[in-house]
Structures are given as structure tokens and as C-alpha cells.
Write a structure and sequence with these properties.
The complex is a heterodimer. Chain A has strands at 4-7, 10-13, 19-25, 32-38, 45-51, 57-58, 67-73, 76-81, 90-97, 105-107, 111-115. Chain A is mainly beta. In chain A, strand 4 and strand 5 form a beta hairpin. Chain B is mainly β. Helices cover 0% and strands 43% of the residues of chain B. In chain B, strand 5 (55-56) and strand 6 form a beta hairpin. The chains are: A mainly beta, B mainly beta. The interface between A and B is medium-sized, with 25 and 22 residues.
């Protein structure tokens, strides 16, 4: 149990375009989902916390107008990178938290974004 | 917020126990310690968590010192597939995870 999927697993887009990444909890309802970004050889950096039915909470330094997060249902959160630039190229990972769990998060496999 | 400190890297011979330490000296009384690992280009995988008592599951054992200021993750019989970056995390009150640099474990044949 506790499976989280992401789609797509990798995407290449042109500079200036927008890209949407989906995160789904497949076998449980997740009231809270998290979005992380990871650059090569670096650790995961928390970008935002996504709560179902409410606005996402962004970490300091993360532009909310550039990284749009929607958590419309208990099993789906989306991250849209708007007007992507090459510096947005990164590995984006989502995680989901079970309401009944204490603090454990279950992570998706990640989405590799390359902006050309 | 409880910050964690881990060694940057460790090597372990295949079949031997891998002991990965973590220092969390500022941990509060009701904060848990979580361990995850990340194999190259994948999302982190949950391993184990604990509060005060030692814990064991099918993947690993977690030893927490009595003062809770440090813990050790033990992989009893490391295999090549255990090569990964291991993260020790003490979540913030709002369930957020702040990842440190982790320990890069290399299991050697």
C-alpha cells in the first residue's frame, strides 16, 4: 500500500512554455501533499505544501505565480511550471501524507524536467 | 526545529551490517525520527521511524539513544541494492520534511 505516482516521468519543453506535473495517491486519500525540487547532486528542497481544497503554502523563496499548485481532490495534486526557463530544469518529486499516519510521507518516483 | 547531522559518506562490505548514525541534539520530547533512502534518480523510500524505543522492521533497525539526541539506522546484511543516500529527518510540527545532505552509502562487493 501507500503508492504515489507521478506523470510524466520525464518531460522536455521549450523555454517560455508551461508544463503540468501530476501527483496521485493510488491507494489512499491524501489530505496533504508536498512538492520538492532536487538539483543534481543536491538534496531535496521543499517547495510547497498542498492541502486539498485550499491554497498551497509556499516555502520562502519559491515563486507562487511561477509554480502553480492545485490540489482539487484527495488523490490528485498538480504542479504547473509556468513560463519555464532552463534554470527550472530539475527533478520534481511529490509526496503524500496519510491522514491517519503520524508524519510519514510516501514519495512519488519523480519527474525530470528539461527546459531547452 | 530539530536539525539533523549525518556523515557525508560511508562504505560497507556486502553482507556486513551497515550502521548509519544521525545526530539530532535539538530534538523535542514529542518529535519523531524518520529514515528514508533515495536510490539514484528515484523518489525517497520510507524505511523506519521511532520516538523513544528501538524499532525493527523487515528493512532495518533503528536504535535511539536514551537522551534521544542521536540515532543509528542498522541495515543488518547490506546488499549492493542498498547503495543509496540515506536521510534522517525530524519533521517539523506541520509535517514538513527538511532534508539535510544525508549519508551516501556505498555497498562494496
Amino acid at each position: 500500500g501507500a503508492v504515489v505516482s507521478q506523470h510524466p516521468s520525464w518531460v522536455i519543453c521549450k523555454s517560455g512554455t508551461s508544463v503540468k506535473i501530476e501527483c496521485r495517491s493510488l491507494d489512499f486519500q491524501a489530505t496533504t501533499m508536498f512538492w520538492y525540487r532536487q538539483f543534481p547532486k543536491q538534496s531535496l528542497m521543499l517547495m510547497a505544501t498542498s492541502n486539498e481544497g485550499s491554497k498551497a503554502t509556499y516555502e520562502q523563496g519559491v515563486e507562487k505565480d511561477k509554480f502553480l499548485i492545485n490540489h482539487a481532490s484527495l488523490t490528485l495534486s498538480t504542479l504547473t511550471v509556468t513560463s519555464a526557463h532552463p534554470e527550472d530544469s530539475s527533478f520534481y518529486i511529490c509526496s503524500a501524507r496519510r491522514p491517519s499516519g503520524i508524519y510519514e510521507q510516501y514519495f512519488g518516483p519523480g519527474t525530470r524536467l528539461t527546459v531547452t | 526545529d530539530a536539525k539533523t547531522t549525518q556523515p557525508t559518506s560511508m562504505d560497507c562490505a556486502e553482507g556486513r551490517a551497515a550502521n548509519l548514525p544521525c545526530n539530532h541534539s535539538t530534538i523535542s520530547g514529542n518529535e519523531y525520527v524518520y529514515w528514508y533512502r533515495q536510490i539514484h534518480s528515484q523518489g525517497p523510500q520510507y524505511i523506519i521511524h521511532g520516538l523513544k524505543n528501538n524499532e525493527t522492521n523487515e528493512m532495518a533497525s533503528l536504535i535511539i539513544t536514551e537522551d534521544r539526541k542521536s540515532s543509528t539506522l542498522i541495515l543488518p546484511h547490506a546488499t549492493l541494492r542498498d547503495t543509496a543516500v540515506y536521510y534522517c529527518i525530524v519533521p517539523r510540527g506541520t509535517y514538513k520534511y527538511i532534508f539535510g545532505t544525508g549519508t551516501r552509502l556505498k555497498v562494496l562487493a
